[in-house]
Specification:
2 copies of one chain form a homodimer. By secondary structure, chain A is of the alpha/beta class. Chain A folds into 2 domains: 139 residues, NAD(P)-binding Rossmann-like Domain (Rossmann fold), CATH 3.40.50; 183 residues, Rossmann fold (3-Layer(aba) Sandwich). Chain A contains 13 helices and 12 strands. In chain A, the strands form 2 sheets. Chain A has a 7-stranded parallel β-sheet with strand order 8-7-6-9-10-11-12. In chain A, helix 5 crosses helix 7. The longest helix of chain A is centred in the middle third of the chain and has 17 residues. The two termini of chain A are 40 Å apart. At the A-B interface, helix 1, helix 5, helix 6 and strand 12 of A face helix 1, helix 5, helix 6 and strand 12 of B.
């Protein structure tokens, strides 16, 4: 019996980032026959036929991959059974019908969490030192500090409030620990055992979380219920000298209110943002130009140099697929329907 | 026998920052009679007489304190024997003659090291994400990322080369460890045991340090020998995609060369600076305006909220002074002559 086929459908840039030689070697070690397909296709119309003709049972692909047609034959002998997607949202790639028919799909799962948490730490440290302001003022306005009047703050000994306590929050905790911080989280769905494991205090309400900690880190998933759950009132309740960091989802926050609060509290609230309600962030967004906001263009994760982590994660899943084991970060219909 | 007098000569702003109530309570617990003197003095000419009249044996002071005259009587009964300086360089405050006559002087010592190392981590993370660039471009130029073309890097799994291995470098190490980095240092004067204690590899030359690590952190002390020891050749030898961070002393680096190298390597070298050859940084410095440099105005340490750490350190020293024990971070004549 010949080895199952995996179709690796990637652009050259994706191959370079996701499959450096050491990671490619791990892929090569699997009992799979690789059929490489370089994207973009010279003839886009040939796409579904290429999958069928290759008799691929698995597909390894990323952002550059064309969508799968909803009538693609899946699940039978020599037909596609598994899509290892190297990025996040699979909705543009995989129609719901294919998952209903039993196609297994995984995404980058928690393999990107640590780089996102790293970006969270960057924004926290930036907020404490006001480095967003200093970079703009020093590069464009010839600025320098004003002796003892210049306010600088440290992360050491601070209290941190996490809104959300999933994989990214859990990866953030070891990065914060060396600073001697106390950490609380608000996440009703996470059991006590997880709080105990990480030494994190459960916050009993969002009101408590926002008003009783120095630094609030927004990490709640975007759901209908969470739309604008971070209200103007919550934002205004953050302590003087406090900070609000968003590395989760933009629309969890009432962004117009955030801009108003930022403007009103220009000297006593620091803000760090990587995500926004509308992306790309509109050129005329009121968030641009405010000296108490550090802005990043949704680059938390994964960084270019760590895209290989998502491929390593996919290779583990391909191994499990070959052995008939359960896959990690499987996109169930429930997960599919909740994703954005 | 009445308790020895400590003269606390501070401005109101210094009192607020250095002596919050919890720290003042620790000072109050010592067997010392405190004579508070609010600066600036209404009559500056009364300064040395105020010290003499108070019969202070110890002086607790910071940046706002006028210089001690070189003919101040020290060391005798009811005369000044110890200056606990809450800041760094004592050269403007204390003439060398007084130390020759036996006056004990301490400064903030290593109590500020952790906030400086925190700033180092901020600049490292900024360099990896190019956040200096993004803050300027997003706030002033309406920028957004350009998909997969946007280069982002992570600190995870990087190699770090420290130039200097004193207190700040040692405090930086626990902040870096969660990122799974490998760390080397070049510091011929530091014994092997210290390298072993911190799990750091000794780099045998500056050439090796600069050319064989991803991120170079400049922490060497400023001495005549170290003036411009970081040459254009060393800076050009840093790996493509690498970073150079300076949280030590500006004049250790040939700054004109740094500006040239930064300009030439605008896309493949990231730089983070808190210190400069001339401070305030001149408005027309060629470092300003380069997108691969994150700039801060010498605010690494101590942050305003952690100035209390330096007072806690001074209070420990006052306790030792009362008990006739050796003081920490004593400014010997040798240290005095080497300081800037």
């Amino acid at each position: 019996m010949s080895a199952p086929v995996v179709l690796t459908a990637l652009t050259q840039a994706e191959r370079d980032d996701f499959l450096p030689s050491s990671v490619q070697a791990n892929l090569d070690s699997l009992s799979l026959r690789q059929v490489p397909l370089l994207l973009p296709l010279a003839d886009p119309a040939s796409w579904p036929k290429q999958i069928v003709d290759s008799k691929a049972e698995a597909l390894l692909c990323a952002w550059g991959c064309p969508p799968l047609p909803s009538d693609l034959p899946v699940g039978g002998p020599g037909q596609l059974r598994y899509v290892a997607y190297l990025a996040g949202s699979v909705r543009k790639l995989v129609p719901r019908q294919l998952i209903e028919k039993g196609l297994q799909v995984t995404n980058w799962g928690s393999s990107v969490s640590r780089t996102i948490s790293e970006c969270g730490l960057l924004l926290i440290l930036s907020a404490m030192r006001r480095s967003g302001h200093w970079n703009v003022a020093m590069h464009r306005d010839g600025a320098w500090k004003d002796g003892m009047k210049t306010v600088t703050q440290s992360l050491f000994c601070r209290s941190i409030g996490l809104h959300g306590f999933g994989a990214i929050a859990q990866e953030l905790i070891p990065l914060l620990r060396p600073f001697g911080v106390s950490i609380s989280a608000f996440s009703p769905s996470v059991p006590d055992a997880v709080f105990q494991k990480y030494g994190v205090t459960r916050s009993t309400s969002l009101e408590n979380l926002f008003s009783n900690h120095d630094i609030i880190v927004e990490l709640a998933p975007y759901t209908e219920k969470n739309h604008h759950i971070v209200t103007e009132k919550l934002l205004r309740s953050i302590r003087p000298g406090g900070a609000f960091i968003n590395i989760g989802r933009g629309a969890v926050v009432d962004e117009a209110a955030l801009a108003r609060v930022a403007k009103d509290r220009i000297d006593d609230l620091q803000i760090g943002l990587d995500v926004y309600e509308t992306e790309p962030l509109p050129k005329d967004s009121p968030l641009r130009g405010l000296s108490n906001i550090a802005l990043l263009p949704h680059i938390a994760g994964p960084t270019k140099d760590r895209r290989q982590d998502t491929a390593s994660f996919a290779i583990e899943n391909l191994q499990s697929f070959l052995q008939g084991k359960t896959l990690q970060s499987l996109i169930t219909l429930d997960v599919y329907d909740r994703s954005t």
